[in-house]
Amino acid sequence: MAHVVLDNCINCKYTYCAEVCPVEAFHEGPNFLVIDPEACIDCMLCVPACITGSIMEERDVPHSQRSMVRANAMLSQQWPSIIERKPAFPDAEEWDKVPGKRRFLEMW
Questions:
Q1: Is 90 exceeded by the pLDDT of residue 38?
Q2: For residue range 60-96, what is the model confidence (pLDDT) as tens digits?
Q3: Number of structural domains found in the chain
């Protein structure tokens, strides 16, 4: 079962998770990361690496976040792969745990 990046990653985009992924399943958009469900091998290395707690197994995604399962699958086919850590956004700490961040998702 694949893992999913939830909306709390939006405007934080710490990339420790991508750095530890052994199969290059992470893809990077303008202000968000996603996991390709076809590439994810469910190794769980990304879960503790995500300092915002924005990654979970697909089966555990709450109903309020189910749209993020589809977003990860769709956007991972459009965005480039990321395998190295990059600096987080300068105001990432301020964005962590802000509710309702889906409206800030930049697709392109």
A1: yes
A2: 999 999 999 999 999 999 999 999 999 999 999 999 9
A3: 1
Q: Which pLDDT score, from 0 to 100, does residue 18 have?
A: 98
- Per-position DSSP letters for 60-102, written without gaps between them: G--GGGTHHHHHHHHHHTTSPB--S--PPPTTHHHHTT-S-GG
Compute how many other C-beta atoms are within 10 angstroms of the C-beta atom of residue 94: 11
H or E segment to which residue 4 belongs = strand 3-5
48 lies in some domain = yes
Q: At 108, is the pLDDT very low, low, confident or very high (cuts 50, 70, 90)?
A: confident
Residue 33 lies in a domain: yes
Q: Is residue 107 part of a domain?
A: no
Helix, strand or coil, per DSSP, at residue 22: coil
Residue range(s) defining the domain that contains residue 30? 3-82
Spatial neighbors of 94 by CB under 8 A, at least 6 apart, are none
